[in-house]
Design brief:
Helices cover 62% and strands 2% of the residues. The chain has 29 helices and two strands. It has a two-stranded antiparallel ribbon.
C-alpha cells in the first residue's frame, strides 16, 4: 500500500472506566478511524493503451524500467522525408524519439504536427510503456497542451489529449508540470466545448481523472476547475454512451470525490440522482466505479444524501458479491456510513449487514478482512443497542480469535471492536460465555511491544474489571474475572509493564494496579515476607 492518507484520527482515547449513559451518545465519540489509502485499494491512474482490447487497462502507478520501442517502421506520411533524419538507421530509438520531439516543438504546420504527435501517442501507448521522465525533460508538454487548444484539426486534439492522458499516469513530478503548464484548463475547455469529437472528450475526462488521482492537492485543483460538473453534464446528456466510456467517467468522478475538499452539493446530487441506473447497468466496470464513488462520498459530509437515494439495501447486498472487486468498495461504503451516522448504522443493520460481514470476516484477502473488522468496529461504536447487536452475533468468536493475529492491523481492529463493546455493560454480559477466551487473548496482547495495541488492551482490561464491580454481591462473577486473570499470570505481565518506556502505558498500568489489585499486592507482599522469614 504504500502511504496511508488518514482523513480523521480517532476522536479520543477510550474512556478509562465505562460511563454507560454517555460513552456511546455520539458516534464521533466511538473511537473510529477512517482510513484512505493511496492507489492500493482503488485504481487512481490508468494508461490509455494503443490496443482497443486494453482500453480500460490496469493501474500504471508503479514506475518500471522501460525499453523504448521506436523503430523506423513506425514512421509514415510526411515524417518519411529524408531531410528530417528520422529514417537514419545509425541512431538508436531514444535518439530517434528525441529528434522527433524536437521537430514537434518547432513545427507550426498542422499536417506535420498531426503526423508527429500521432507517432508520439503510439509510443506513449505501447504496452511496454515509454520513458516518461525522458519525455518530460524535453519540454514537449507545453506544445502538447497547445495542440489541445487548436481550433482546427480534431485528430491533432485527440492525439495530444491521449499523450497528456498517458503522461498524467506518471509520477508527481510529471503531473505537477502538467498542472503548472495549464493542462487542467485546456482539458476542461475541451469538456465545455460543444460539437467536439466524443473520443477527444472521453480522453480529456480520462486525463483529468489521472491528474486527480495523483494526490489530494492535484485532486482539489481539478475539482476547483469545475471538471466534476462538466463530466456529470456529459454523462447526463450524451446519448448511447458506451459502458466503457461511462465506467471511465464514473471512475474519474470517484477520484474527484476522494479529495480533501468536500465535493459540491450539486455534483453529489447529480451523481446520486443517476446512481440507481448506474447500479443496474450491465457492466461490472460501471458498478465497481459507482461503488467507489459511494465509498468516497460517504467519507464527506454528504452521507445523508446517500441515504435519501434508497440504495442502502443494494449496497449491503453487494457486500456478499462473489467478486472481490465489488465486495471491497461495498464494504468500504458500509464502514464509512456507520462511522458517521447512527441512523444509517441502524439502517444497514436492519438490512442484514452483520450477516454479510460474517461471511467475509475469515476471508483470505487480509486487506479486506481489515476493512470488515473496521466496519464492525464502526457499527459497535454507535448506540448501545447497535453495540449489543454486534456482541450477540456469531462472528464475535472469530473476532476474539483475531486478537492475537500476526497481522498488526488486523489485531488492532479486533481489539478496537472489543474495547468498544466492553465500554457497554450489557455487551460484557452478552460476552460472558467467551470471558475466558477474551482474558487469554488480553494476557497474550500484554506482551505486544506496540504502545497502541497495549493501550487498547489495557483499556479493554480496565473496562472488564470496572464492569465486574457492577455485578450483585452474590454473583460469582465478581471475583472470577480477577482470579482467572491472576491464575493465567496476567498480573505478572501487568506488573512487568510498569517498566514500559511509554508514559501512557506506564500510567495506565499503574492506574489499573492501584484500582483493582492493590489489596492483592499487599497480601502478596506479606506472604513473601513470611516465606523469607521462615527461610532464614
Amino acid at each position: 500500500m504504500h502511504k496511508n492518507l488518514i482523513r480523521e484520527e480517532r476522536k479520543a482515547e477510550y474512556n478509562k472506566a465505562p460511563d454507560f449513559e454517555t460513552i456511546q451518545k455520539r458516534h464521533e465519540e466511538a473511537q473510529v478511524e477512517l482510513r484512505r489509502k493511496k492507489r492500493s485499494d482503488h485504481i487512481a491512474k490508468r494508461r490509455a493503451w494503443l490496443f482497443n482490447n486494453r482500453t480500460m487497462a490496469q493501474d500504471a502507478s508503479e514506475e518500471t524500467d522501460i525499453a523504448l520501442e521506436f523503430e523506423i517502421s513506425q514512421i509514415s506520411g510526411p515524417l518519411l522525408s529524408p531531410e528530417l533524419g528520422l529514417l537514419n538507421p545509425n541512431i538508436n530509438p531514444t535518439e530517434r524519439l528525441l529528434l522527433l520531439i524536437s521537430f514537434i516543438r518547432d513545427w507550426e504546420n498542422l499536417d506535420l504536427l498531426q503526423a508527429g504527435v500521432q507517432v508520439l501517442r503510439k509510443i506513449l501507448s505501447s504496452e511496454k510503456g515509454a520513458p516518461l521522465e525522458v519525455i518530460l525533460e524535453t519540454g514537449i508538454t507545453k506544445k502538447l497542451i497547445q495542440c489541445m487548444m487548436v481550433n482546427n484539426g480534431s485528430s491533432l486534439k485527440n492525439d495530444a489529449a491521449w499523450c497528456i492522458t498517458n503522461l498524467a499516469s506518471g509520477n508527481g513530478k510529471i503531473v505537477n508540470q502538467l498542472i503548472n503548464e495549464g493542462a487542467i484548463e485546456a482539458l476542461t475547455c475541451i469538456l465545455s466545448t460543444e460539437k467536439i469529437n466524443p473520443e477527444t472528450v472521453t480522453m480529456a475526462v480520462w486525463a483529468l481523472g489521472n491528474i486527480a488521482g495523483e494526490n489530494l492537492e492535484s485532486c482539489d485543483k481539478v475539482t476547483q476547475s469545475g471538471a466534476g460538473l462538466l463530466i456529470m453534464n456529459i454523462m447526463l446528456n450524451w446519448l448511447n454512451i458506451s459502458n466503457d466510456d461511462l465506467s471511465m467517467m464514473v471512475w474519474a468522478l470517484s477520484n474527484l470525490f476522494r479529495g480533501q475538499s468536500a465535493p459540491s452539493i450539486k455534483l453529489v446530487q447529480d451523481f446520486l440522482l443517476i446512481s440507481p441506473q448506474l447500479l443496474e447497468k450491465d457492466s461490472e466496470k460501471v458498478l465497481i466505479a459507482t461503488l467507489w464513488c459511494f465509498a468516497f462520498i460517504a467519507e464527506s459530509q454528504r452521507i445523508q444524501m446517500i441515504m435519501d437515494t434508497g440504495i442502502i439495501q443494494k449496497i449491503v447486498n453487494l457486500c456478499g458479491s462473489d467478486k472481490l472487486e465489488i465486495r471491497h468498495p461495498a464494504v468500504r461504503t458500509i464502514g464509512n456510513l456507520a462511522a458517521n451516522s447512527e441512523t444509517l448504522t441502524q439502517s444497514i443493520i436492519n438490512y442484514g449487514v452483520l450477516d454479510k460481514l460474517e461471511t467475509l470476516i475469515n476471508c483470505r484477502e487480509r486487506f479486506l478482512k481489515k476493512i470488515v473488522l473496521w466496519s464492525i468496529c464502526n457499527i459497535c461504536g454507535g448506540t448501545p443497542l447497535q453495540a449489543e447487536a454486534v456482541a450477540r452475533h456469531d462472528f464475535m468468536k472469530s473476532v476474539i480469535s483475531l486478537l492475537d493475529d500476526e497481522d498488526f492491523e488486523i489485531r488492532k481492529e479486533a481489539i478496537y471492536i472489543l474495547c468498544n463493546l466492553t465500554s457497554n455493560a450489557s455487551c460484557i454480559l452478552i460476552l460472558k460465555n467467551d470471558e475466558q477466551s477474551i482474558i487469554e487473548k488480553i494476557i497474550s496482547s500484554l506482551s505486544c511491544k506496540d504502545p497502541q495495541i497495549l493501550m487498547l488492551t489495557l483499556n479493554t482490561l480496565e473496562n472488564l474489571l470496572s464492569a465486574s464491580k457492577e455485578y450483585p454481591a452474590n454473583d460469582k462473577a465478581d471475583n472470577s474475572l480477577m482470579s482467572e486473570f491472576i491464575d493465567m499470570e496476567g498480573l505478572d505481565k501487568l506488573e512487568n509493564l510498569q517498566r514500559h518506556l511509554n508514559v501512557h502505558v506506564y500510567n495506565k498500568v499503574s492506574q489499573i494496579l492501584k484500582n483493582f489489585f492493590s489489596e492483592g499486592e499487599e497480601l502478596k507482599e506479606n506472604q513473601q515476607q513470611i516465606i523469607n522469614y521462615n527461610f532464614w
